[in-house]
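Hi L., both proteins are below.
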Amino acid sequence: MIQQWPARSPWTFAAVCVMVTLLTLLVFGLTQVPVIELLPGYVAAYLLIGGCIFGPPGKLPALRQAAAFLLPGALLVVLALLDLGFWCGGWLLGLPAWGLLLNRWTMANPLRTVDVFKFFGLLVLGMVVFTFNIIWVIFSLGLFLLPIVPLVRLAHPEYRARPLQAAVEVLLAVASVIIAFAIPTPEGSWSSPWVYAGGAATAGLIITYWAWSVPRRSRRPQLNNGAIV
């Protein structure tokens, strides 16, 4: 009998930690350099988040998955280069969750339109939290949840069975907090980097938790005159 190993899941929490750190660096880089000079950092963020989502399952994404993952980011970069706003930074807030939805998108488990609308609704909410958390600082406390989440997950045997993932996620979570406090606050800034990082963490965790909890809905075979079609 051939033993079937369970499919490896994406490192979604690691993707959130990467997003928090790189988005904070990009936002505070806006005050010092032109947008064009931030493009390599944005590309690195995109590739690292994509690696966390699509890499661990051990298979390349389908063409439609790759296109749906990369195209929005590319289009929003054009808006940034045209000086129409750094919307590509806001898109990073939901990128781990968007990648998770696309990772589950197969012929047997189609991506539902209602889930796409829910995702964009939560993304707008996340951008509101990220933008106004300098006033409602309580939303920035999400930053301190990052090191706690993987430690709590260690209580589950399935998570302990993946020691590499657990170690990487703990290190990334701790690094996110350290880097957020290590970034110097630019002169004239309305708030500190850790406040923005906390807003990104809160928004990212909310959106990604929703995407993770979306149930898989496989198409069931239908009977037609007694035959399975």
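That was the first. Here is the second:
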Amino acid sequence: LYNIPEMNKLLTISLLIFLFLSCKNEKKSELEFYAENQTSFFDLRNGDWTKNSWIRKTENLKIIHESFKKLGYDRIEKLILKNSDEFLIQDIYIKKNFENLMDSLELTYEKPEIQTKYYTEFWNRRKAEKNDSIVYEIIREFNSYKSDKKRLNYENQFANDTLIDLLNIEFDYANLNIEKAKSDFYTLKKYGFHQSAYNLLYERRKYSELELDREKLKKELTKSTEFNQAWLIDNEK
């Protein structure tokens, strides 16, 4: 049998567990999930690039490159967080100066005699994946953009308009107003990105400042019984 202090302690612990579980259940019942289309390039947002097979295919690298050129490489340079001797892109940390690295990769592609261990291994991996030619083309054209800051000519037949529209929503805040927010919402809905559209309404800092009829717009979205990773992620937490 428990003595009085032990009984009180047991009751207190039991009560806290009960309240915690009650809060969890209540929170779970309030969550709303929405459908989210999974495009061929979707894992570029939520997946591990080091293990992504889609991005290693020549035709897909071409799609990404031409889409970025059509969008404008200046619009997406903010994806790369650079310091003087290191940079970070999508959780991938590289301890090298970004500009020097790009210049050296272009220089060493056809000159193995001047390659150090790093560049030898880099280009050998690309050759093993059979994408070294397109990687070299991307690096060479990106370096030419860096030197004169002129928009690169793009091949429209390879550009992916869905990807371009998604990136425009994510990075075009300069003229954000209620009408553009509604347009962004319906663009996401058109492509089947309903969880992303929900996040735009409730979970994005820039949009939260606008007086949208969120409840009315939310009713237009298709619900899901399970959580789906969203392209347009929650950035308010």
